[in-house]
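Q: A reviewer asked whether we had any structural model of the full assembly, not just the individual parts. We don't, so I'm hoping you can provide one. Inputs are below.
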Amino acid sequence: MSNTSGFLFSSLGKKVVMGATGLFLVTFLLVHCFINALIFFNDGGLTFNIGAHFMGTNWLIRTMELVLFFGLVLHIVQAAVLTRENQKARPVAYANPGGNVSSSWYSRSMGLLGTLLLMFLIIHLAHFWVKSRFTGIPTEDANGHEDLYAIMQETFKQLWVVVVYVLAMVSLAYHLLHGFQSAFQTLGLNHKKYTPLIKKTGVCFSIVIPLIFALMPLAMHFGWIK
Amino acid sequence: MSHGNMNLTLKVWKQKNKNERGRFETYQAKGISPDMSFLEMFDVVNEGLINEGKEPIAFDHDCREGICGMCSMYINGRPHGPKEGITTCQLHMRSFKDGDTIVVEPWRSAAFPVIKDLVVDRSSFDRIMAAGGFVSVNTGNAKDANNILIPKDDADTAFNAAACIGCGACVAACKNASAMLFVSAKVSQLALLPQGKIEAKNRVLNMVKQMDEEGFGNCTNTGACEAECPKEISLENIARMNREYLGASLT
Amino acid sequence: MASSPKLNAKIPEGVLENKWTKYRSTVHLVNPANKRSLEVIVVGSGLAGASAAASLAEMGYKVKVLCFQDSPRRAHSIAAQGGINAAKNYQNDGDSIYRLFYDTIKGGDYRAREANVHRLAEVSGNIIDQCVAQGVPFAREYGGTLSNRSFGGTQVQRTFYAAGQTGQQLLLGAYSALQRQVGMGAVQLLARHEMMDIVKIDGKCRGIIARDLVTGKLERHFGHAVLLCTGGYGNVFYLSTNAMGSNVTAIWKAHKKGAFFGNPCYTQIHPTCIPVSGDHQSKLTLMSESLRNDGRIWVPKKQGDTRKPTEIPEEERDYYLERRYPAFGNLVPRDVASRAAKERCDAGYGVGASKMAVYLDFAANTERYGKIQATKLNLHNPSKEEIMRLGKEVVKEKYGNLFDMYKQITGEDPYELPMRIYPAVHYTMGGLWVDYNLMTTVEGLYALGEANFSDHGANRLGASALMQGLADGYFVIPYTIGEYLSEEIRTKAIPTDHEAFVKAEAEVQERISKLMNIKGTKSVDHFHKRLGKIMWDKCGMARNKEGLNWAIAEIRKLKEEFWKDVRVPGEANELNPELEKAHRVADFIELGELMCIDALDRNESCGGHFREEYQTEEGEALRDDEKYAYVAAWEFKNEGSFELHKEELKYENIKIAARSYK
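A: Here is a predicted structure for the entire assembly that you could use as a starting point for your response.
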């Protein structure tokens, strides 16, 4: 049957792709956050640089990096396609589009939040990833690892960068606040007993992870960690 | 109490037919009683317009007790107006204040073209139903009703999904004009019952296919449909449809 | 009395129990190849129309369905709340086909045809089977079996239901069967189309003229047979529980083209509706009869008592239904309950601002349920508040949606105060006269469901309308139509440029032009409201000779004024709701006159027809079986002139007796 091929082009199929890639990106965030949180050992980045070295050299992680890129592109492309289709579905807009009574503003603004995140991502990649993978990191730490930590300290000296990062993490929080539980709903995982748990987990995740991320530039900029 | 003493300003969408452009017109509704339903208030305005030799406002309505699903006004940014769990015909003027300005628009969706003023064409819903919203059983083929035992919980959940009146408020409320709550309610009702399970796979595939062809948007799980549904159909139905669809597509 | 030679009911010979089985097995058939070239038009998409269209299409006929709403699912069958009767005897309480048959005949005050009613009772069980197979989610017990409840006029529990939305669920079942045939191309669906007239060729009905309500265009449709499934005409009273669009036009046009109208005056006034609150009101809302299972009806014993209902002590309340009818109490049939309410209000005991209402009180049963719950929960010496709180939870589960609806409309909380209710027009037992095959006096033209007169006599029992609509559509017409169509297999589809079509269309066109060009000063609703008031005052719950004569004269004047002074705005070639209403109201006016003529002719009281001159000393309806045990079938002669034909009603299996619910 042509079910499987038709699936990806159907409204529901595209949604499943969004949900599945979204959840995949969530797992990436978790790993990324864990590694980066190593800076809070406050040991001049020694532990963190070990983590960064592992991430940069382990073949499994490097493979997953490719998968991650593929997932991210898919997430973005599908979002663009869906947004276009959804706009076409209502050619004449309401004069009074209604407010936040029946839905939250961030659930209706996933496209906007996502676009902000994409812009942030480009800046963020330019700051760190491009340097660590391509242009190279000039200094080494006491263990002889590339000193990515030093790059971070350098970058977060600039106030505007800190502001951008913190704002981006606010966007991420709202994006996750809707996206996390929404992905489960899309994948059909809705259950009287477990859905409330999923929703609570989603809220915690959406607050805790971006908060930890946001603390990194703040902590470095204001010298809470050396 | 014949007429009351509320005076309101109405901004209503007027559109001659499908092809011509529409615009808002302003009307004064005078001497309105708080006991009137929203549609009875429109009756009073229309009566006044006819007496003045003007053309009345066209709107869909029939049973006026919240069950036929015909009435369809988008009032102050909300389908069926400011109250939850009711249709426009069940909305009473006591929900408004004297002097209010009320904006009334038709359902807006590419799949619900405006026919005239506040009247839209919802035949896309009928076509989705024709694509699979049924159990294929010809008259006369049934066995004794109590031969099919159905757990009360399943029967109740199926009933709650079946309570959908097909008004289209879910589409009107959704920022993407998605019809998933409507489609999922029927898919769910029949997927929950043993009678419907036999052709569940084809049903969900065919109904979703038709839904996509009609030009409805995609669901982004904002939950506006559930919040605005006059029969409070649950979002769980959409998840169930997603599950059914995923299962049907991948097996 | 002998039946008029123009009325051949075609009731099969044989004993009552075997008539239908035998007839069904011997009725002429149409072979599958021929069915493909036979076309059937179904007007209306309610329970009768949708079920008939789906069933006929399944059999292979080419079917067209018209409905004036935007979708077949909107038909007013959807609003039926309480349930559907079937003689299943699932409750083991002694129900049987015979008992359902007997209850229906008795409930109809011995004015229905025995053979039809027995057939209805016979197929009632099949309907439940069919609906369950379609996935209709009826209420169930914890063991998974179907649940039943009681309705008025019966002492068994035979009513199947789906919360307070039984009509909706049954209609959606029939609608889904219909849409399945639409999807398969077997049915052509014409939504937002209204039938404007039938087309007759050589005495047979061969099609219809319809108006596309969106474009205003007139269309000609050919059919070997035409089925009118267009519901009742309660909107002749302006205020009724019917939908705003429910109308008489299709059957009235058929009547004017030769279909006799049966028992037009039989109107059902439902006892439990929300009272009228002002003259802006556009319709009345029913509170399901199922509420009478737990609600007790009363008025104060003192006239004009203005105290709050909760302040009136028990001994100063008159539970008049329990007092007058101890055997059935609050569950007497609708006509009896309605008349009793009117009697109390007319005598000055009414309540509420208008004094035209009685109380429907749930306090006693709330308390009873509360006590049962307290026992279940092992609460010893619970306080009165505790008991009432527990009781309210039970009541809420049973009737929550109805209580919410009441509160929404009246602004009063029925959990705290008793509901105020008053009777309102609900259903019309009268309709086109049909024979056993459901064919009218015009060959090839059928009437099904509420549109025909057939099964309910002078009063319909609760939960029987859904039963009749589906019986006609699923299990009667698929067989009986063969009797006629088997003779039509040689009739080729008649092209719609045939002169009869051209002429019929021209007549419709002329009427539209006439309505559009009056350009008078008053709206259609203005005339409709005036007609409604005449009908309600003089041809409503109580009628008398003087009033009816006055009403006939008034209606004639109203008709003249309508055609001189109505104003229909807009244009004919577009969506024009006012033009649609104008057509319908013009027909209602003519029908109103016939209803009064029929009511005047029937010098007796029976069921929903109560002539004040004919009552017992206790105020009960007084039938005259010697003179009036007949169906009044009216033939249209010319404007305002009708000829009466009588079909004698023979009771061979039931002993006809005074109807008592005491």
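A: Points you may want to mention in the reply: The longest helix of chain B spans residues 236-250. Chain B has two domains: 6-115, 122-250.
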